[in-house]
Each structure stands twice: as C-alpha cells, then as structure tokens.
Amino acid sequence: MLTLQCPYCGVNAEETELTAGGEAHLKRETVGSSDDDFEGYLFMRENPKGVHFERWRHSYGCGKWFLAARDTNTLEVFGTYSAQSKEPPKELRDKISAKRPGWSWREFK
Amino acid sequence: MSEPVSFLGGRVAEGAVTVRDAGLRGMITLRGDLAATKVKNVVKKITGQAIPAQRKASVAEGRGAVWMSPDELLLLVPYAEAEEAVATMAKALKGVHHLAVNVSDARAHITVEGTGAAEVMAKNAPVDFSSAAFGAGDFRRSRVGQVAAAFWKDEAGAFHVVSFRSVGDYVFDLLRVSAEAGPVGALS
Question: CA nearest B65: which of B100, B116, B23?
C-alpha cells in the first residue's frame, strides 16, 4: 500500500484516496515544435527501476494535484511537493542523492 | 411550492451507536482566497466563526465553517437562511474573486453517535480515528466505503458525515450495518 502525504492537506493519504496521474515534469510541446519533440511529449515515458517522479491527485480529499518522488523498486517514498514546480525542490533532490547516490531521471540528478 | 425534505426524511437507526439523518442543513460552498480580509469578515458574519485552520471544523449550534481544501470552505447555516447567506456573500465579496453556491439540497448530512462511533467510522474510511489522531473539531475529506465524504467530530464525540445526496442512502446503510455489527475493540 502506497501512502503519500498530500502537500495541501498535510494528510498521509493512502492509495485508495488518490488517483495516479502519470509522469511528472512533462514539458508540453505545442505549435512550432518539431514532430520528433511532439512525439516525445506524447508517447515517450520514463520507466525506471528506481527513482521516479509522478503526478498524483488527492481525489477523495482536497482534489488538488501534487507531485511525488518515490522508488519504483522498493516503493520508498522520498517526498511530495507542489504541482506548481518546474523541477523537484533542491532539498528533495539532496535527500534522494543521500539515499540513492548517482541517481538520474530525465534531466534531473 | 414543494416542501423541502431531507434525503431520508429523518431516518434513524438506534443502537449502541445511533446513525441519524441530521435533517435539512443549509450548506454553502465557498471558494476563494481564505486569507483575504473580506472573506474572513463575511464568514464571521454568516457563521459566527473564524476561518478554520487546516483540517479543522468550527461548528457551534448548527452554524459553522469547515476546511475543505486550501481554497474552499463549507459553511453551515440553518436551512432557511442559506439563500440569504449566499446573497449576503455576493454583496460583501463584490470585486473579490470567489464562488459561493448554495448546495444544501445536493448534500446529505448524517450523524454517528455513541461510544463506538469511532469504530463505525474506521470500518469505512481509510483514516486513523483513534482519539489521539482525530479529536473534537478535527475534519477530514476522504471516502466512506466507495464514495467521497467529509466528516468531523464534535465536542460530544459524535461524527458528522456529509456526502452527496445521491449516495446518502448508501452511506446511511453502510454506517447502519457497521453499527449493527457491533464493536471490534480496536479503538477502545
């Protein structure tokens, strides 16, 4: 059972209260993008064994979207943060580095 | 005009834990910047309560405000006053970005009373209902069985459950059956 802390409510919401929203930090390609970039935005997703960043929605709670960092292998949750983030907060990245030295995910490390 | 009735017409399931349709309740959804002075003032004026802190409910004598999300409150007023309260808010919040809707007829309000009330709730919602974790005035939005619900605990230790009216029957029966099944002893 996955338990994530909603950064808006502060509750430790369990999986059945949440809705998964796929990968986090996708950059939307739009008018003027090359076909390759657009294809990447539409179809290419990370599928790591290890550190992963995802979007979640506290759908039975406050209804807000938020982002979460977790390990897909051990199911360890590193932290959650606001959906209005262009990148994972430095603090969180440092925390992951301490636990999983040398990790990388898309452009983040 | 048709006469307003609550979703179950005041149905009651008596027992060690009593599940009760709380009847008609005026409920108003208010969305906006909860830190804005005008919002604070109008909530105080209508409910007599200050804006509750995160995951708190401040309700007294059928009036109050409960924290639904960082930008949403549910205001409780007597049923007959809901329309007037919405009009008051529209006037007081002119020029302030907000949304105020009378949702009284869209909601069901059920109370769960008795010594084992916390266990009845815990059987149906993924929330820690031990008195240390969920005390009087605490509020959560979560699910009850398969449907969304909001609930808080009052000073007397009774739980107030608010769900959509359309699923009120389901929520009532779920709580009633859980109450009939008797105590588990996990939260005593």
Answer: B100
